[in-house]
Amino acid sequence: MIDPETQTDATAEPAETGDGTPPQGRLAGRIALVTGASRGIGRAVARRFAAEGAHVVAVARTLGALEELDDEVRAEGGRPLMLVAEDLTDYEKIDQIAVALARRFARLDVLVGNAGLLGRLGPVGHMDPEMFQRVLDVNLTVNWRLIRAMDPLLRQSEAGRAMFVTSSVGHEPRAYWGAYAISKAGLEMMVGVYAAELLKTNVKVNLINPGRTRTGMRREAYPGEDPETLPLPEAHADAFVRLATADCPDHGALIELATPA
Fold first, then answer.
1. 3-state SS string over 187-253?
2. N or C: lower Cβ tally within 10 Å for the chain?
């Protein structure tokens, strides 16, 4: 958990990069929170944000994987990361992160809601109730709690930006995708409602559908697929950077990045 009173060099004020030079890049000095940052798209986005000068709060359940990410960022000369190893379905942790950010920075410039759970694929009527609830918790409720906790901080930014990762199955019903599709449909409606409520503010919010991407979740959903035919998560990082910039005008949009899954 972030401790705003006892910051290490990995959680210092956004003034210098890992080598002591002033931050440079398209996101220089911007404070960005990325969930699901230990692997896949979240990991690629966190690395790219750091390379672009952002002060990244990287959130995931596994501390070891976050530390490996931070080592990579430092080796590449990027901004050291603020590491938060928590299961966000312990919803009070989200509120605690928001309080810590408010005390330390008094704002949040970028929120990336990326963490997701596939669950088991199969007929809707055969879904295990505990699995169904867990998928909804991770893919939908966590993102609502993030909006609830981080909205005041985004409004304190001169140009708050939020983006949430969805899937084509969230707006194109597909047999046997059950809990995952239902959770993404709910996410898309929630983000659309949130965007409508932000029209007269300095905050802009969008949805991103990465499409077919070489991730662990994709491998779980399509075990027989050749991963070499899929783009790497890093291929999508520039789209996230664009939506995170202070001058990006997009709002309430669904950004489709690759060939639909």
1. HHHHHHHHHHHCCCCCCEEEEEECCCCCCHHHHHHCCCCCHHHCCCHHHHHHHHHHHHCCCCCCCCC
2. N
The rounded average pLDDT for each run of 10 residues, N- to C-terminus, in the chain (261 residues) is 44 48 83 97 96 97 96 92 97 98 98 95 94 97 98 98 94 92 97 98 97 80 82 91 98 85 51
Domain assignment present for residue 95? The answer is yes
- Residue 227's CATH number: 3.40.50.720
For the record, the structure tokens of 85 come out as 């190893």
Query: From the candidates 91, 180, 194, 222, which is the catalytic residue?
Result: 180
- Is 91 one of the annotated active-site residues of the chain? no
Residue 15 in any domain: the answer is no
Is 194 inside any structural domain?
yes
Range of the domain at 251: 24-133+143-256
